[in-house]
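Structural prep section.
Before we set up the soaks we want a predicted structure of the protein with pyridoxal-5'-phosphate in place, mainly to decide which crystallisation condition to try first. Input record follows.
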Amino acid sequence: MSNTKHCIELENKYGAKNYKPLDVVLTKGSGIWVEDVDGKKYMDFLAAYSAVNQGHCHPRLVEVMKNQAERLTLTSRAFRNDQLPELARELCEVTGFEKMLPMNSGAEAVETAVKAARKWGYKVKGIEDDKAEIIVCAGNFHGRTVTIISFSDEPQYKDGFGPLTPGFKIIPYGDAEALAAAITKNTAAFIVEPIQGESGVVVPREGFLKDAAKICKENNALFIADEIQAGLGRTGKLFAYEHEGIKPDMVIIGKALSGGMYPVSAIVASKEIMNVFNPGDHGSTYGGNPLACAVAREALKILQDEKLIEKSAELGAYLIDELKKINSPHVELIRGKGLWVGIVLKKTAGGARRFCEALQEKGILAKETHENVIRIAPPLVITKQEIDQAVAILKEVLA
Ligand SMILES: *Cc1c(COP(=O)(O)O)cnc(C)c1O
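Run finished without errors. Recording the tokens verbatim:
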């Protein structure tokens, strides 16, 4: 039996079936490259949903991880550690916000944002008890907790998981007029992905984020950007909202904050907003642990030292140009920003899954999203030659 078959059988037997992965069993990774248990090499064009923007097993991250693992890994927030203060300062300096609150997974950071927004709504804005509303967009993906799926409009995410959390309104993505119509004196916040990743790399119309930020400001509601997938260089800026020259009241960060080493997430905001939290209001045993903080500090430095954000802008524009040149009967549209591209297939193409399987065969791992979109998001350490190599394969597969 091949190693691949063995692993798949074990996982199918003992693991919950909450995913349907491509049948490739990976065992090693370096930069944009991963290797399966049978020794076949692939380019990783998903990058763990942009968590490995810095590339797999980045040597600097491995080094910091090892060193910190031998020193101190967890204190809980009952005591202080010497890594959290440094990460807090560096993250605030890099992002231009005053305060941060560390968590682990992206969903926990989104939950933290929801709690912060509601509390700000009551304590600062003066919303009547239990009346706070949060506005979100159709097609959103913000994670999988019960509260977060409560404001998803994807039926499968909610089916069988009720009763759901109330207090959310959904408007069409990209529709500023709908936001203006939905916002009330009880609106605490608008939470939005500047580009919707899971929805298929959906870029809203130009000016939407700017308009939305203005509407929020006029109505004294917080503008919260979920940059968990779009942020940290993916779109060719540190944060995707920078493309519209705005500054949110709060930003939610995760995924690439640890370069794929370890779950690290955070929210950043002003003092005024963050100070709604008092000791005991919110927390996490692992949140802000020294291992997480040491890794995140290095992951942020790598983005800057290796100019990965600039690379994403430059090579992303090149990649999109090259993809647009492909003459395929199946492609409806190519969209994206930076090294983040959705290849939208025509209805007649028979779904994206079969193209992803064909790409796997030829050495590229990409994941379909929403049936008909192939999402392309390689680690930002990719070279121009590697892009050319990938485009040649994509050309064959899409022909
Ligand atoms: C991945 C993602 C999340 C959830 O992060 P997890 O670490 O999987 O909990 C939230 N928002 C966006 C935009 C994401 O892409």
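Observations: Residues 106-125 form the longest helix (20 residues).
Flagged for discussion at group meeting.
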